[in-house]
Write a structure and sequence with these properties.
Blueprint lengths: L1 H10 L15 E4 L5 H11 L3 E6 L13 H4 L5 H6 L3 E6 L4 H12 L3 E5 L4 H4 L4 H7 L4 E6 L14 H7 L20 H24 L4 E5 H7 L2 H4 L18 E5 L5 E5 L3 H10 L14 H6 L1 H12 L4 H10 L4 E3 L10 H5 L3 E6 L3 E6 L25 H7 L4 H9 L3 E2 L4
Parallel strand pairs: 1-2, 1-4, 2-3, 4-5, 5-6
Antiparallel strand pairs: 3-12, 7-8, 8-9, 10-11
Helix pairs in contact: 2-9, 9-10
Length: about 425
């Protein structure tokens, strides 16, 4: 690990004058929790936005999930740490008039407000778009829901597995007895983070032309459908559906003699020729059963058994170099723990290590893009905050006097991290 950190430090020294982050000067109020909203806000924070995380007195519920006995003492969890770096935290009771006023004060000078509540619930706290846009007409108001703001399911609670079911994603993966198998990756939430930040950038750019903000609606359901844009185009013609296509031996995983697996994908004719050379199956290059993609799909079972038998005779260390040399699209199936030492991940700075003052060393996934003017060491300028860590600092910046702040704390309207 030390060598990896040394690589980062040596490789990320800026050449010439440092360029300010692209979103420096943009103020974001993040009242969302769990994954979708906080993840979108962290993408903005990574690019220099000043993000204030407004939490309840108990805090974002992700502080208390998937945690450990050590992290619990800090009201922290690994998921929370990954999605809330570069933010400051204020903890308050928004059910009180004083708590709501603090949110209004924050929004009066903010550029972006992010909230996830069931549609209609925000009005109870005066956090609806109409109310906040009267306070600040330039505010970009982002609301996140499970199923969209309209329709019969608008007010229903939603989690990613529910959306996998609702969107049809869950129907694509089943046990032999037909039982649907949930995907462990939260597609809607994680892809939603990027969509949210993208929509905010569009709204900010439009504000440059109009001078006023607007309401941006995001939903888990819409995100789950967007993830299937290629598959759903086939709905009207089920007989041609990709979902019904037989599994192709040319897009599959094969076990090696060392019990490791290799994923191989062959679509183009030159890739098929290269694979045949690697496997010493040159006599099959022009075989009428396999010399077209359609033929390889039609005869997938026969071809798959043939390839499996050959791959299983050698180790992954034998096959991987040969597949790379032949430019055959392939990869060993890695354990996620292998990624920290993966040469390609390290060379492209996709995961970086940083020190959290309460937790110690953490690994952060960098934003999935790079800008040539912003080659900084990592994106964690600030560690993920403790609950209410910046409450006093934020209230002070809003003009609250010391005695007013202490009164709010004493009456349990505001929480600080000393409690």
């Amino acid at each position: 690990m030390a060598s990896i950190l040394a690589y980062y430090i040596d490789s990320f020294i800026l050449k010439g004058a440092e360029v300010p982050p692209p979103l420096e000067g943009i103020k974001v109020i993040d009242m969302s929790q769990i994954y979708f909203g906080p993840g979108g806000a962290v993408y903005l924070a990574d690019q220099g936005a000043d993000v204030i995380k407004v939490e309840t007195l108990r805090g974002d519920s992700m502080r208390h999930r998937y945690t450990s006995s050590y992290l619990t003492q800090f009201n922290l969890s690994k998921p929370f740490l990954s999605l809330n770096r570069n933010k400051k935290s204020i903890s308050l009771d928004i059910g009180t008039a004083e708590g709501q006023k603090i949110v209004f004060d924050l929004c009066s000078s903010a550029d972006v407000f992010i909230l996830n509540m069931r549609p209609g619930a925000e009005k109870k706290f005066g956090l609806d778009f109409d109310t906040l846009s009267q306070i600040n007409e330039r505010l970009i108001y982002v609301c996140i829901s499970g199923f969209g703001n309209e329709g019969p399911d608008a007010s229903l609670p939603a989690y990613d597995i529910v959306l996998q079911a609702k969107s049809g994603i869950l129907s694509l993966r089943r046990h032999p007895d037909g039982t649907p198998v949930p995907y462990p990756i939260m597609f809607s939430d994680m892809s939603g983070c990027m969509s949210l930040s993208y929509s905010v950038m569009l709204a900010l750019w439009e504000r440059e032309k109009t001078g006023i903000g607007q309401k941006v609606e995001c939903s888990l359901l819409n995100q789950a459908l967007a993830m299937q844009m290629q598959q759903l185009i086939w709905i009207e013609n089920e007989e041609d559906s990709l979902a019904d296509e037989a599994p192709s031996a040319m897009a599959s995983c094969y076990q090696c003699s060392d019990d490791k697996w290799i994923a191989i994908v062959v679509i183009e004719a030159n890739q098929w020729t290269a694979l045949c050379k690697v496997l010493e199956l040159e006599h099959l290059v022009n075989h009428p059963k396999f010399n077209t993609y359609e033929g390889r799909v039609k005869n997938a079972l026969e071809l798959g058994e043939l390839i499996s038998g050959i791959v299983f005779t050698k180790t992954s260390d034998y096959w991987i170099p040969k597949l790379k040399e032949g430019a055959v699209p392939s990869s060993i199936v890695q354990d996620r723990n292998d990624l920290l030492l993966d040469d390609q991940v390290v060379a492209n700075r996709m995961i970086v290590s940083d020190i959290h003052p309460s937790v110690g060393t953490l690994n952060y996934v960098m934003p999935p893009f790079k800008m040539s003017s912003h080659n900084y060491i990592n994106s964690a300028r600030l560690p993920a905050p403790l609950l209410g860590e910046h409450s006093k600092e934020i209230l002070d910046s809003l003009g609250y006097k010391e005695e007013e702040i202490q009164s709010l704390v004493n009456r349990n309207i505001v929480r600080t991290n000393s409690e």
